[in-house]
Write a structure and sequence with these properties.
Belongs to the peptidase M16 family. Residues 437-453 have a biased composition (Pro residues). InterPro entries: Metalloenz_LuxS/M16 (IPR011249), MPP/UQCRC_Complex (IPR050361), Pept_M16_N (IPR011765), Pept_M16_Zn_BS (IPR001431), Peptidase_M16_C (IPR007863). A hairpin with a 7-residue loop joins strand 12 and strand 13 (325-333). The chain folds into 2 domains: 2-226, 2-Layer Sandwich (Cytochrome Bc1 Complex, Chain A, domain 1); 250-437, Metalloenzyme, LuxS/M16 peptidase-like (Cytochrome Bc1 Complex, Chain A, domain 1, 2-Layer Sandwich), CATH 3.30.830.10. It has a 7-stranded mixed beta sheet, sandwiched between helices. Strands 10-14-11-13-12 form a 5-stranded mixed beta sheet, with helices on both faces. Helix content is 40%, strand content 19%. Helix 1 (65-72) crosses helix 7 (190-200) and helix 3 packs parallel to helix 8 (216-226). The chain is globular. 43% of the residues are buried. The longest helix has 20 residues, at 134-153. By secondary structure, the chain is an alpha+beta fold.
Length: 453
């Protein structure tokens, strides 16, 4: 049931919107949207601030700046010293962190509900008053470079994925890693971070999500108190960034120290742009679950257990993103089998679906797995907040969540077969192989402090 709610004390200050009861939403005069979902099952609250900016908005030479600024957001304001943010959250009995994605940057705290006001005070303070001290920057950029070494340079599969994106995408910003290329990090300055902050960290480029044992009217009043005084600023113009059509299969080989070879196949695929009328993205979600949604799915059952051609085999696809999508197939061949044999086995399974479709039982199992995953999110306040925030970050209303589930339920076997035929073909395929090199006799010595995130 839909209804319209006004907050009497703020009716002159807030722009009222039509809302669907729980979640509730209002937009402040400065453009900041506040989305509140009341959940009374535990006396806690999740507070998240989402900025509509990620690595997709970076330019050549500045890759990694979105992630670097995420680190700098914990380095203090005139009111809160370096590291003090985390200490205050911990003292309030909560936990906090942040994460940068291709499409967004987000910050969260989960605390006892009585501490929500303090969390808003802290986040509003650093939304527009970050110090960005050059000395703190000089230290933190080293932390980020060490994070890149630990999580990418020293991780062969991460290197394969990074190189895969750089080959699969020729023009789109998705070709660059979120953490940035090392050379860009080495040449980044505090002014680069300051410019990024000034461009994108404004209330009209952000939204706040609160989930927990709260009253939405009270949350809106707190938002007006702490976020309301922040002035909006004009945002940079985002120009369309379309990836040119791929005109044939691409291949790459990555050599890195590793125990096993890896085969990674990535097909260009659509993502959801029209929740109500799209069909193929939902069918591709179902196809991914049919191939790798449970122990009895096609890849683990046929390639790992029956044929024993792979020690692991999986598929992955995300139907929501600001940029173009990819459907991934990945695995490692068994001892005595080659990457070429595993690639052929992957292709054979895909061709079977393209030619013969899927049966009703496996479609039902895959659907049950997908729907259960969506329902289980309701058990966690944090997961609920993430769901709202991630949908909004790619231009999908959180109110469409139920419709997304309904669309998954409506996927037919014919839809899955059609999507496999339409998108899993060589013209849209990039194949990457990890060629394992001898492992070092001793681990690389760390060159800096451990990364926080």
């Amino acid at each position: 049931m839909r209804c319209t709610r006004l907050i009497p004390l703020l009716s002159l200050l807030l722009a009222p919107l039509l809302v669907q009861a729980n979640p509730f939403e209002y937009q402040l005069a400065n453009g900041l949207r506040v989305i509140v979902k009341e959940d009374r099952r535990a006396p806690t609250a999740v507070h998240m601030v989402w900025y509509r900016v990620g690595s997709i908005d970076e330019k050549n030479g500045l890759t990694g700046v979105a992630h670097l600024l995420e680190h700098m957001m914990f380095k203090g304001t005139p009111n809160v010293g370096p590291g003090e943010f985390n200490r205050r959250v911990a003292a309030a009995g909560g936990r906090d962190n942040a994460f940068t994605n291709r499409d967004y940057t987000a910050y969260f705290q989960q605390t006892p509900k009585e501490q929500l006001e303090e969390m808003m005070r802290l986040e509003a303070d650093r939304m527009r008053h970050l110090s960005l001290d050059p000395k703190e920057f000089a230290q933190e950029i080293k932390v980020v470079m060490e994070e890149r070494r630990m999580r990418t340079d020293d991780q062969p599969q991460a290197l394969l994925f990074e190189q895969m994106n750089a080959v699969a995408f020729q023009a789109h910003p998705y070709r660059a890693p979120v953490i940035g290329w090392m050379n860009d990090l080495e040449n980044m300055t505090a002014e680069d971070a300051r410019d990024w902050y000034d461009r994108w960290y404004v209330p009209n480029n952000a939204y706040v999500v609160v989930v927990g044992d709260v009253d939405h009217d009270a949350v809106f009043r707190l938002a007006e108190t702490y976020y309301g005084p922040l002035a909006p600023r004009a945002l940079p113009v985002r120009k369309p960034q379309e990836e040119p059509a791929q005109l044939g299969m691409r291949r790459l080989l990555v050599k890195a120290p590793a125990e096993l070879p890896v085969v990674l196949m990535a097909y260009k695929a659509p993502v959801i742009r029209d929740v109500a009328n799209d069909v193929d993205p939902y069918a591709l979600e179902m196809l991914s679950a049919i191939l790798d949604g449970h122990e009895g799915a096609r890849f683990p059952k046929r390639l790992v257990k029956e044929q024993r051609i792979a020690v692991n085999a999986g598929a992955g696809y995300d139907s929501t993103s600001r940029g173009p999508g990819m459907f991934f197939v990945q695995g490692s061949p068994s001892a005595g089998r080659t990457p070429a044999e595993l690639e052929a086995a992957f292709r054979a399974e895909i061709v079977r679906i393209q030619q013969h479709g899927v049966d009703a039982d496996e479609l039902a199992r895959a659907r049950a797995q997908l729907i259960a995953g969506e329902i289980y999110k309701l058990d966690s306040m944090f997961a609920q907040a993430m769901e709202i925030g991630q949908l909004e970050s790619v231009g999908i209303s959180y109110r469409d969540n139920t419709r997304l589930i309904d669309k998954l339920k409506a996927v037919t076997a014919a839809d899955v077969q059609t999507a496999a035929r339409r998108y899993l073909n060589d013209d849209a395929l990039t194949v990457g192989v990890l060629d394992p090199q001898p492992l070092p006799s001793a681990p690389r010595p760390r060159s800096g402090p451990a990364p926080r995130h």
